Amino acid sequence: MAVSSPPRFRLLTALLIVTAVWLALAWPWLSDAVTVPWDAKAHFQPQLAFLAQSLARGESPFWTPNVFAGHPQIADPQSLIFSPPFLLLAVLTPSPGLVEMDAVLLGSLLAGGWFIVLYFRDRGWHEAGAIVAALSFAFGGAAAWRIQHVGQVLSIAYFPVALWLLDRALRRGSAGYGLMAGIVAGFMLLGRDQVAYLGLLTLAAYVVFSVWNRGWAIRASLKPLAFGALGGIVTVTVPMVMTLLLAADSNRPMITLSEAGKGSLHPWSLLTAVIPHLYGIARPLGDYWGPPSPDWGPVDLYLARNMATFYFGILPVLGLLLLPFLLRLRPAAGASSAGHLADQDPYRRDALFLLGGFIVLMLYSLGRYTPLFAILFQLVPGIDRFRRPADALFVACALGSMAGGYALHRWIAGPQFRFPLWAKLAFAALAAFCGIAAIMLAQSVGRLDQSLAPLAASACFLAAGIVMLIMMRRLEGKRLMLMLLAGFFMLADLGWNNAPNESTGLTPDTYDVLRPNTANETIAFLKRKMEENRAPDRIDRVELAGIGFHWPNASLIHGLHHTLGYNPVRSAVYSSSVGAGDHIAGPDQRVFTPLMPSYRSVMADLAGLRYIATPVPLDELYKVAERKGLPPVAFDPADFPLLARTPDAYIYENPRALPRVLFAGNALRADFSELMKSGAWPEFDPRRTVLLDRAITPAEAALKDDSRSIRIVSYRNTEVMIEVDSEKGGFVVLNDSWDDWWYAEVDGRPAAIERANVAFRAVAVPPGKHQVRFVFRPFRGAVAELLRGR
C-alpha cells in the first residue's frame, strides 16, 4: 500500500486491523474462558439483569424492591438505565449472561479506539500511529487494569468519541457535530464519576485550546458550542438532578482533602508504565508487594493493587519519551525535509495539548505526593466530591496513548533527525534508573527472586520496542507493512503484559450464583421457601449476610427481596435503621444499629426479614460484631431455627417476621430522630399500631379493635396495589423503605403517604373496602423536592 493509496482504503484497513487485534486480545473473555470479575459481576451484572428482566416483563426499572428493602434505580448512576450500550443489550436480551456483558464492556473500548483512528485520519497522521494509539486505549492503561469498574470504563469509552465530534464541530463550525458532541459528552457525564468529570474538564480545556489555536476565533465557535451545550443539558439534566437529590438524602459522606489523598497513586507505582508485573499484580494476592501492601509498610493508601498499575504498551511510552525531542529538534545537516508530512504538520500543537494533558493528569493522579492536587481540590468546583485522584489515570492514559501514537507518526513520516549525545545518554540513564530502582525496591522487601522474571520480560519488550522503532523508520513508505507490524507488535505486547489475571479475568464458574438459571443450593432453597410462604399479605425478605463478595446483589437477578445489597449510595434513613453498609462481603461487615441491635429486634420483624443466610453460625456472626465493639448479643438458638446447611451458608428462619402489609387501627407519636439514636422502641404492637413522627389526633390515637382484612392485589417494581376492608378505618402500612418519590391513592384519589415506623410507609384509609395504590413517580417527586428548596 503506497503513500498514494486512497485515504478511505487506508482508514478501513486501519479500523480492520484494530478490530482484529482487539478480537484476539478480547477472546479469553468473549470465549467464556474468563470473565471480568469483582465489581463488574458483583455490582453491575445484577444491575444489568434487573434492567433486562424488568423490561422483558413490561415493568419500569426505575425502582427495585430487591435490595435495601427498595432502592431508586433511576437516581443511581450505576443502574445502567442511562447507559446506551447496556440499555440496548437489556432491550435485546431478556436475560443477558456473563459473556454478553463482557462483550459490551470491552466493545465500548473498541468503539473508543475506532474514534481515535478517525481523529488521526482527520489530521493526516500515520495509520500505524493511529493503530498503536487505538489499541493502547482499548486494551491498555487504567481502563484495561480496572476493567471491572464498569461505570468508569464506560465514561472513558465515551471520551474519544466526544473529542472527535467536538474537534470537528469547532474546526467546521458545525452545529450538527456540536449537538452530537454535547450528547455524547452528556452520556459520559452520566457516569457521574471522577473519570467523567475529568474527561469533561479535559474537553473544556480542549475548547479553550482550539479557540486560541485558531487565533481566538470565538465568534466562529459560538454556534457549535451553543448546540453542544444544548445537547449536553438535554442529556444530563433529569438523571443528574435525581442523583444529586438522592445523594442529599443518602449516606454518602463529605470528602476531605486528607481522605481524598488516601486514594493517591504512589510515585513508585509509575514503574508499572514500563514494568507492569514488577509488584506481582498477576500473582495471588499474597504475592503482591507494591504500594500499598504489607511488604511496603504503612503508607495510608486505600487502593486495590490493580488501581496502581496502568501499563498501556511500550511503544506509546517510547513515543511519549521521544515526543519532546521530535517536536523540538531540527533535521540533520544535509537532510531534506521536503515531502515529509510530519515536518509540515499543521496539527503539531494538538499533540502538545495531548502531551500537556497527559502530564497534568499524571501529576493529579499522584494526589498528595505533589502540590497540584491540593491546589485543584480547593480551587476547582466538583473535585472535592471524589475520593480517588488515582482515577485520573483513565484520562491520562487515553491522552498518553494518543500523544504516543502521534510521536510514532512523526518518527515514521518525518525527516532524519540526529539526536544529540546528551539525549541518548538521558534515555539510557532513564532506562537504567527504572531497572536499578526496581531491583533495589524488590531487594529491600525480599522479593528479588519473584521480580527477576518480570524485569527480564520488560527488558525484552523494551528492546523489542526499540527494534520496532528502527524497523518502522526504515519502512517509511510501506504503509500496509507498517500498519500490520504495529498491530502485530501491540497484540504481542498487550497480549502478554495485559493478559487476564486475578484483577481482570476469573473463571466464569466463580460467578455461577449470578446466572439466572443457576443450580446453587442456597438460592434454590431461598426461592422455594419464599414461594411456599407467600401469602395475600406477605412477601418475605432474606438477608445474604456475608456469603461472598459477589453475593449481596444476587437478589436483583433472582427476584429475592433483600434487606441489604451492594451500593455506595443508599438511603440514609434505611441504612441507619438496619445497618446497611456499602457492602457485605463477609460476616465481619454486618453492622447492627440501636434500632436493630440484632436479628431479634422490632426492626428486623418490621422489615419482614424471614430468612438469614450466613457463612458462619449465627452466634459466631454475633461474636464477630462484638469483637468490633458492638454490644454483646444474647443468642438463643430457639429464636432462629436452622432450616438448612448448604455448601455456602447456614440458613435460619425468623418466625416473628411480619407481613409486607399491615393494617393498624391506631397511631402513636414517636420522635424518629431520637428513636434512631436510642433504639428505645415504645411499647406497641405493629399489627395494631403504627408509629408516626407527627402530632396524632384523638381519633387516630383511639384503638379500633375491629374486624379487618388486607391483601396485596399486585406487587410490581413501581406500583403496589393493596385491598383493605375495615369497619372503623385506620392505616395501611407497607413495609417497604421510605422514599419521597412514592405517592399514594385511595380509590383513585390522591392520598397522603407518611413515613411510618421510622423507615417504612403508611396511608390513612376511612372505614369500608378500599383500593390503596402506591406508585413511584420520580419525576414528580424530584420537581416537588426542588420546589421545596432542595
Structure, explained:
There is one protein chain. With 790 residues, the chain is α+β, with helices and mostly antiparallel strands. Helix content is 48%, strand content 10%. It contains 26 helices and 15 strands. Helix 9 packs antiparallel against helix 13. It is elongated and about 100 Å long. The termini are far apart. 51% of the residues are buried. The model is unreliable at 335-342 (pLDDT under 50).
Sum up the structure in keywords.
alpha+beta, 5-stranded antiparallel beta sheet, 26 helices, elongated
Indicate the topology.
Elements: H1 7-30, H2 39-57, H3 84-92, H4 98-123, H5 127-139, H6 141-145, H7 150-172, H8 175-189, H9 194-213, H10 218-248, H11 257-261, H12 314-328, H13 348-365, H14 371-379, H15 393-413, H16 421-444, H17 448-474, H18 479-497, H19 521-532, E1 541-544, H20 554-558, H21 572-578, H22 602-606, E2 609-614, H23 618-627, E3 642-645, E4 650-653, E5 661-664, E6 666-669, H24 672-678, E7 689-692, H25 698-701, E8 708-716, E9 719-726, E10 730-734, E11 742-746, E12 749-751, E13 754-756, E14 760-765, E15 768-776, H26 778-787
Parallel strand pairs: 1-2, 6-7
Antiparallel strand pairs: 2-4, 3-4, 5-10, 8-9, 9-15, 10-14, 11-12, 11-15, 13-14
